[in-house]
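Might you be able to check the backbone structure tokens below? Thank you kindly.
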Amino acid sequence: MNTTWRARLSQFLVVGVVVAGLVPAAGAAQSAEVNSAPPGVVPALQKWTGGTGRLVLSANSRVVVPAAAPAGLQQVAQQLAADVAEMTTLHPTVVTGTPAAGDISLRVDAAADFGAAKSELKPEAYRLAVGSTVEIVGGSDKGAYYGSRSLVQAVVSSSDHLSLPVGTAVDYPDYAVRGFMLDVGRRFFTPQYIQSTLRWMGWLKMNTLQIHLNDNGFASKYDNDYSKTPAAFRLKSTNPEFAGLAATDGSYSRTDWDGFESTAAKNAITIIPEIDAPAHSLAFIHFKPELGLNGGNSDHLDLSKPATTAFMKSLFAEFTPWFKGPTVHIGIDEYPSDKTAEYKAYVNTIAPYVRSLGKKVNAWGSFTQMSGGGAGYDKDMVINSWNNDWYSPKAAIADGYKVINSNDALLYVVPFAPYYHGQGLDGGWIFNSWAPNIFGGSNNLPAQDPNLLGAMPAVWNDQTWVDYTELQVHGLIEKSFAALAQKMWSPTAGGTDYSAFLLKVATVGQGPGTSYLPETIALNRNPSDLAYGRPATASSSETSGLGAANAVDGLDVSRWASSYSDSQWLKVDLGSSKSFNSVRLKWQNAYGKDYDIQTSADGTTWTTVAQRRGLTASGLDTLTFPAATGRYVRMQGITRGTSFGYSLFSFEVISDDLARGRTATASSSETSGLGAANAVDGLDTTRWASSYSDSQWLKVDLGSSKTVKSVRLNWEGAYGKDYDIQTSADGTTWTTVAQRRGRTTAGVDTVTFPAATGRYVRIQGITRGTGYGYSLYSFEVRA
């Protein structure tokens, strides 16, 4: 979890239960309206039936399980309590018995009504009922765990960060495999990263992590010399027989792996370890050069030698006892097609051997390229359909296999490469256009095909010669991870509004125990940005999912994209005439080479306030100009920088108010809800109000010394009659730079003065204009 949550939630300790028919807790408002909107959880709920009112968790709320609860359910309860403690200000205990008002109860009932859930997926289904208590009923421990994820997300996304809407959710997955594959063979990922990723996956109800344990770089990057080409196997045994096999730049001990398995089990995730052979096997050839083709100068094993298969058997025998999950992946992709006979013999030997060790077998689909089809191959395997030419999903199903969608063209990320989504998958495209049955073109399967188990996007670290970190990889993955989770859980329940979906993702975050992973899908609202959340329109949008609103939603992962022509524009309505002195544009790859920034009072007649000519790259572009005013601001494109249109992640209109969003304090506040921060939040609907006496003040810290020339005060009915404007370098010693005497009305008062400098600016009240205190909707400071 991002540590900023703790600070954000600490102010919201509310005690009591608010439901229809009960007396609201002190300070809480009771809603009489039906909660028609479901809680904002990710992935979205399959079915929601709203009631009225809200249940507010309190310091007395407990997590309750039946007296005879199995160990698995008790573990879910303990984890739920710990996660509530991390994500909120509460610290519930776990007890057995009967739940009381405000408690959270967990139980398992395989025979419960889980709506339209498929029978084979009912163990992952759950019911979440909120009334005077919260009740989670899972089809198994996994279902109860998923219900607990929805509960905590719903609490986190509520306005008070402690309550849930009254109603009942029935939720279940549409697909059995909701996976992710990580190539650690070519690049080591730390145990901390894998542990955090497992928790993140559980938060999003993903249930399968495949860890690709061995691989190598491309020899073409290393003088075609395989002895120089990096290769790694990432498991480190204490068995002397395998001494020297584990990679020296990072490997996992049995203790590390046990930790992965423990965290996976707690988060309802199955780990599928992959030991890939007979291709991608340079690590094994470095260990035993005699087992490689071409005298060891290859990353392909020589399957004509019985010792090769014997070695691979010994490898599976050594490490399979480490693996707690039911499945082991044996690789078998991309071997030379002129060695079909040896290849087929290897597959038909290794697959049953791994099953003899007590595991099911998964493999990469390669049989069309190797043999023209799957005839004669072991049929007791699940196929990852990774390439439509190597072995399409339809061909695999026709040959009798069940398949997982790992389509390379759609689902592969190769970090920072010029191929296979080197900058990460497009989350908007995934959300709007993809589902697990989509493999591309004529290879798509019917939705809910019984032979399609689900999907598994993949990260392949092909570029062993490129310098990047595991956290940079996370940044690429995060762009689409939640959208993938939604589509694998239910392709339809998430709706069609990607911007709204991203706001939910930003609100629920990455979940507890994930602070190691930086969050980029987060609200990045600049408090000085006047355009945030305002209505935006454009001359065109490339698709419905790339609309103008994406440029002002505070998320740098959604974007507006125009049609492919030069004279395109994006316009934002600030709501009323505002003063501003810069704009900040974050261009996607399709940037604007030449464009104007324009303002308008009516949205029809425009004045150009700034020009950009000859921009040569995407990224951030800030234009600063003398303070301008207008209700409407637009970017008017003149010349595109690429053959595509114009595409903006964000379009910010920056207020020239130096005080906006800065730290403000006051001599007093009439109530806690009328604090000093309200005067600098950019909203004319919130206000600061002092106690009822004359000598009151409000002070703002500009962050560093600034030159200021005016202040603008928007007085509520309780205005100041006489007051001074003062500056200070240290917040202690003050210099009066302007005076107001004898004011007679509320409303806007602009006070100008000769340029003054200071880090702090304050209004020092002398005489009130009414019998109340001083009350300001806004206190703006300008240069």
Remarks:
- Residues 1-31 have pLDDT under 50 and may be disordered.
